[in-house]
Amino acid sequence: xxxxxxxxxxxxxxxxxxxxxxxxxxxxxxxxxxxxxxxxxxxxxxxxxxxxxxxxxxxxxxxxxxxxxxxxxxxxxxxxxxxxxxxxxxxx
Length: 92
Hints:
By secondary structure, this protein is an alpha+beta fold. It has one domain (10-90). The chain has helices at 10-20, 26-33, 35-40, 70-75; strands at residues 58-62, 79-85, 88-90. A hairpin with a 2-residue loop joins strand 2 and strand 3 (88-90). It is globular. The two termini are 23 Å apart. 2% of the residues are buried. The mean pLDDT is 87.
């Protein structure tokens, strides 16, 4: 929350967690930040994964090459290409 952090950026939270717990792999961190977070809020039937009938709250990144790894996407500075909230593209 803004009470303990000046930014509401899930990638910053994932990166901060990874600094404290480097043995947690990127796939687990992604699940923690998406479906597991939604499950903790009892909202996993609405959000947290890309499935028919769920709200599409997503961000897309500009990749330098097709073989970018999940680690690179989570831990490196990436340029956001687009954002969607509830399936509607935002202008950024």
